[in-house]
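Worked example 3 (structure in, sequence out).
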């Protein structure tokens, strides 16, 4: 596996920090918890999509595109990060936003990521909840092409084999940091949604036989479907970047017990995790992904399913801008 074979646009200074969380570790009575700060990827407040966009935008440039197009939920972090990359490259940008959550909340609909999308000049089009968003994206891409543009279509979350290369790279970066520090990692934990982050991490860590387990905490789909999606993309990514022998199905592990009522719908565990990390470590998680991911990690530690003797790295995938879209929820949570 040799990532320099693929077109890539460098968007942030790597590596992102790998830091201990001593107060959280003490509060929970172990395991040793570390955090990899992929919320610090610079572009328009950062997040995990920036790593994917290094390869996606690299390919878009190589293909002579003049317009990026993608899709996501209204408070999509992916859309915000893609809008920033398009602005930086002087390309036009169109996003289809799905009303995936049924709400009239002003902050959810206008603040947080949406505010930043608009500031960066994104052309936003809305679709009702339950729309086949990939089909809608393809239709809109065809429309742009017919209008004489050269669009480059990025799937939801930037999760295809090109985007997933970003997290193959993250796995390599993490192993190098850990080796330099003499840090033996047992497990990596992170929030998993459109699957590209986990698929890339699994390929990168399996590809070098690291022995590090990856646990995705689901935010939308049930476990069977989430693991199948991640595995399928991991196989495609492994094939694309030259990892031989495929990816064992057993290397793909997701826990989807922390979704709550649905994608983007707050849970008490998320509120606890967001508040705990803010107050113990000054780390800002997000309500849709990293907050639920950390809620899962905390609960699995409390239940003893993640052992006290382990060393765990939580990948902070970003998204704190989304907190502003959930202002009303946190006002209530903090008051209650
Ligand atoms: C998109 C996103 C994720 C999930 O990553 P996938 O590659 O879509 O699985 C996790 N956290 C945040 C903050 C995100 O924006």
């Amino acid at each position: 596996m040799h990532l320099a074979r693929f077109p890539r646009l460098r968007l942030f200074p790597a590596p992102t920090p790998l830091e201990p969380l001593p107060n959280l570790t003490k509060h929970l009575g172990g395991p040793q918890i570390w955090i990899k700060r992929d919320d610090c990827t610079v572009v328009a407040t950062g997040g995990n999509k920036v790593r994917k966009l290094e390869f996606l935008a690299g390919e878009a440039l190589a293909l002579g595109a003049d317009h990026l197009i993608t899709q996501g939920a209204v408070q999509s972090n992916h859309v915000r990060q893609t809008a920033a990359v398009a602005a930086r490259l002087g390309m036009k940008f169109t996003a289809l936003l799905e009303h995936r959550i049924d709400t009239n909340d002003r902050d959810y609909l206008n603040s947080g990521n949406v505010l930043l999308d608009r500031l960066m000049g994104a052309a936003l089009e809305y679709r009702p909840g339950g729309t086949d968003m990939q089909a809608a994206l393809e239709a809109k891409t065809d429309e742009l092409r017919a209008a004489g543009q050269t669009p480059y279509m990025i799937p939801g979350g930037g999760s295809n084999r090109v985007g997933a290369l970003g997290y193959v790279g993250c796995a390599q970066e993490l192993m190098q940091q850990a080796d330099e520090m003499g840090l033996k990692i047992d497990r990596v934990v992170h929030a998993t949604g459109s699957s590209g982050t986990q698929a890339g991490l699994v390929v990168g860590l399996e590809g070098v036989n690291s022995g590090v387990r990856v646990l995705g905490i689901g935010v939308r789909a049930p476990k069977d479907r989430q693991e199948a999606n991640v595995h399928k993309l991991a196989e495609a990514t492994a094939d694309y970047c030259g990892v031989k022998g495929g990816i064992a199905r057993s290397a793909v592990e997701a826990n989807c017990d922390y979704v709550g009522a649905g994608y983007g719908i707050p849970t008490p565990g998320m509120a606890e995790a967001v508040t705990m990390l803010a107050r113990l470590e000054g780390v800002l998680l997000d309500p849709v992904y990293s907050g639920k991911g950390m809620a899962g990690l905390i609960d699995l530690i409390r239940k003893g399913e993640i052992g006290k003797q382990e060393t765990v790295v939580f990948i902070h995938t970003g998204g704190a801008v989304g907190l502003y879209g959930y202002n009303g929820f946190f006002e209530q949570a903090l008051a209650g």
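Notes: The pocket of pyridoxal-5'-phosphate is lined by residues 47-48, 77-78, 157, 159, 191-198, 286, 289-290, 317-319 (CB under 6 Å). Residues 83 and 121 are 8 Å apart (CA to CA).
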